[in-house]
Design brief:
elongated, alpha+beta, 16 strands, binds histidyl-adenosine monophosphate
């Protein structure tokens, strides 16, 4: 039997309602903050991500689904949205000078990672990007939107970790200090951290290796390297969170896995998720537009991993119920199939959920099905009913006693 690709999951009818619920909560909250939906293609020219996310990141270096198409072009299944969205915004001139543009998205993304609980090769994100405000007010607003969605889906217990990477200069100064510190201890570092020390030293701060963590405990503090402007932006964000009652923890080692960030970075974590405990993350990315050939456009945003949000809801037993049962099942003599569908269509036109038998089975088998599907009513059609232009409505509740004739002439109602 052919199986799905490892790490790519079918969304079965049982969980379709949960996905619809997530979409509805995300859409409603986004619109409340003035965001509009944007959908970019599933694939892009590879350079959108290699230039946007950064050659030295794990995403670009190890995790992209990249192939050469029949025209010889290198294309990549999108591993994240932000770079693709910025490409689309530049191409379609969606940011007007002097005004803020707010965009949201919801859809599948692809990363070649080792699948495990909460880590897939095709996963889904909701994200929001606030474009063209250089001010930390925008950082605060996106955090409020994120909180509204987290609470809106029913999650109360989680952690918001926040840090600042500062601007380019303060980050470069910090990087130099960190490299000096780590070089002096290189022989004790894990192989992965030694490699990162060469390619992307800030990512060493992310190491999960016990010995690395011990060494990092004494590493230089990124917040001490912020220049005045970077420090006052960070203070503004933190003070606003305090005033607005948003709980947070400063995590000086939070650097995130994408190269486009500057200033504020943050992540949402949930203890119930195990090792893949981050269910969302984001930050400011003031340089990305220029990197992708656009005008300087400061921006900030975040994305949630929706499978991880569903895992949290499952643990809380808070996922919505599946598809509703039909209001009625049409139990029809084969000879009157078309009349049966006429009746069904009339009822559907009135807003009811009505299901017909398509297998030419006995009356008894059809009644059994109506019961199994949990339908409240059977709509019975035989020679008599067809001749009189209506149907027999049978109430399936209470052992299915009551029945009466309903004519199609009036607006037929499914009522006991
Ligand atoms: P990210 O942290 O790479 O950020 O991904 C955001 C979220 O997507 C993660 O917190 C996680 O919940 C989920 N996620 C990532 N990889 C997987 C996977 N393999 N399986 C399941 N879930 C996964 C970004 O993608 C940025 N574009 C966020 C952003 C928007 N920054 C600014 N604007």
């Amino acid at each position: 039997m052919i199986q799905a690709i490892r790490g790519a999951k079918d969304i079965l009818p049982d969980s379709a309602a949960s996905w619809q619920f997530l979409y509805d909560v995300c859409k409603k909250a986004s619109e409340q903050y003035g965001y509009s939906e944007l959908r970019t293609p599933i694939f892009e020219k590879t350079e959108v991500f290699s230039r946007g996310v950064g050659e030295e990141t794990d995403i670009v270096g190890k995790e992209m689904y990249t192939f050469t198409d029949r025209g010889g072009e290198s294309v990549t299944l999108r591993p994240e949205a932000t770079a693709a969205l910025v490409r689309a915004v530049i191409q379609n001139s969606l940011v007007q000078e002097g005004s803020v543009s707010r965009l949201w998205y919801f859809g599948p993304f692809f990363r070649y990672e080792r699948p495990q609980k909460g880590r897939l090769r095709q996963f889904h994100q909701y994200g929001a990007e606030c474009l063209n405000s250089p001010n930390p007010e925008a950082d605060v607003e996106t955090l409020l939107l994120a909180k509204r969605i987290i609470n809106g889906v029913g999650i109360d217990s989680y952690k918001l970790l926040i840090n600042s990477l500062g601007n380019g200069e303060s980050r470069a100064a910090y990087r130099a200090a960190l490299v000096d510190y780590l070089r002096a201890r290189e022989s004790s570092l894990s192989g992965e951290s030694v490699r990162r020390l060469e390619t992307n030293p800030l990512r060493v701060l992310d190491s999960k290796d016990a010995k690395d963590i011990e060494i990092l405990a004494e590493a230089p503090d990124i917040l001490k390297y912020l220049d005045e402007d970077s420090r006052s932006r960070f203070d503004f964000v933190i003070n606003s969170l305090e005033k607005l009652g948003l709980q947070y923890e400063i995590d000086k080692r939070l650097v995130r896995g994408l190269d486009y960030y500057s200033h504020t970075v943050f992540e949402f974590r949930s203890a119930g998720l195990g090792s893949q405990d981050s269910f969302g993350g984001g930050g400011r990315y003031d340089g990305l537009f220029e990197q992708l050939g656009g005008k300087p456009t400061p921006a900030v945003g975040f994305a949630f991993g929706l499978e991880r949000i569903l895992l949290i809801l499952e643990a809380l037993s808070a996922t919505p119920a599946g598809a509703p049962s039909p209001d009625a099942v049409v139990v029809c003599d084969d000879a009157y199939f078309a009349f049966g569908e006429l009746v069904a269509e009339k009822l559907r036109g009135g807003g009811y959920r009505v299901v017909s038998d398509l297998r030419r089975r006995s009356f008894k088998a059809q009644m059994r099905d109506a019961n199994r599907m949990g339908a409240r009513f059977a709509v019975i059609i035989g020679e008599d009913e067809a001749a009189k232009g209506g149907f027999t409505l049978k109430d399936m509740l209470n052992g299915g006693g009551e029945q009466r004739f309903v004519s199609l002439k009036d607006d037929p109602k499914l009522e006991a």
